[in-house]
C-alpha cells in the first residue's frame, strides 16, 4: 500500500490540560468587570478552579501580597478534610461560595468564588507558600481548588458556564483598557 501520511513529529502535542480537561468559564463573576474564573472539568467529574487568563490578577504585572482561604471567623477552607471513597466531610459549595481572597500589593482584593455546586476536595496550599505559582501557572501548579460535583450534576456543570468560544466572544466585546496619560 502506498498510503503514507506525513506527520510532523517536531510539532508539540496537546498539553495535559488540552487533552484531558474541558474548559468552562464564568465571566464577570458577581458583576465584577473582568473578574473571570475558569473551571477545568476532567472526564472523571473532578473540577479544578483556576483564574481565567483575563482576570485582573494576571494582568499588568501585578504581584500578590496575600492569599487567604479563611472566609469568615467560622469558616476556613484550609480546615476542609475529606475521607474515603465517597469523599465524605468535604465542605459543600454553592455556585457563589467564596473559596479564597487574594490581595495584591496595590491593596486590591479579589474574592474567588467556586462558580459551581459541589464538594470541596482540596485547596492548593502551595500557592500560600509560593504566590508566584498562581501568576505563572494558573491552570496547572497555580490552581486554587479542586471541587467534585454530585454525580447527577456533573453533566450539568457547563450549563451555567461559558465554553471557550463563548467566553472569547464575551471578552472580544469588552471595551479596551484605558491608557493612562
UniProtKB/TrEMBL annotation:
InterPro entries: Abitram (IPR039169), Single_hybrid_motif (IPR011053). The keyword Repeat does not apply. GO terms for biological process: dendrite morphogenesis; regulation of actin filament polymerization; regulation of filopodium assembly. GO terms for cellular component: dendrite; filopodium tip; growth cone; lamellipodium; nuclear speck. One of its GO terms (molecular function) is actin filament binding. It comes from the Eukaryota. Keywords: Cell projection, Nucleus. It is found in: Cell projection, Dendrite; Cell projection, Growth cone; Cell projection, Lamellipodium; Nucleus speckle. Belongs to the ABITRAM family. This is Protein Abitram. It comes from Gadus morhua (Atlantic cod).
Amino acid at each position: 500500500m502506498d498510503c503514507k501520511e506525513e506527520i510532523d513529529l517536531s510539532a508539540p502535542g496537546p498539553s495535559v490540560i488540552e487533552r484531558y480537561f474541558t474548559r468552562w468559564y464564568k465571566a464577570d463573576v458577581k458583576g465584577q468587570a473582568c473578574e473571570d474564573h475558569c473551571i477545568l472539568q476532567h472526564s472523571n467529574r473532578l473540577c479544578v478552579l483556576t483564574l481565567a487568563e483575563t482576570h485582573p490578577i494576571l494582568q499588568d504585572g501585578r504581584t500578590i501580597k496575600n492569599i487567604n482561604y479563611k472566609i469568615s471567623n467560622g469558616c476556613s477552607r484550609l480546615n476542609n478534610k475529606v475521607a474515603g471513597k465517597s469523599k465524605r466531610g468535604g465542605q459543600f459549595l454553592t455556585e457563589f461560595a467564596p473559596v479564597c481572597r487574594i490581595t495584591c500589593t496595590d491593596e486590591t482584593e479579589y474574592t474567588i468564588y467556586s462558580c459551581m455546586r459541589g464538594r470541596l476536595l482540596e485547596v492548593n496550599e502551595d500557592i500560600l507558600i509560593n504566590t508566584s505559582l498562581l501568576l505563572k501557572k494558573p491552570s496547572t501548579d497555580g490552581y486554587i481548588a479542586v471541587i467534585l460535583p454530585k454525580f447527577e450534576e456533573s453533566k450539568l456543570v457547563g450549563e451555567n458556564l461559558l465554553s471557550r468560544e463563548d467566553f472569547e466572544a464575551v471578552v472580544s466585546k469588552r471595551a479596551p483598557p484605558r491608557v493612562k496619560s
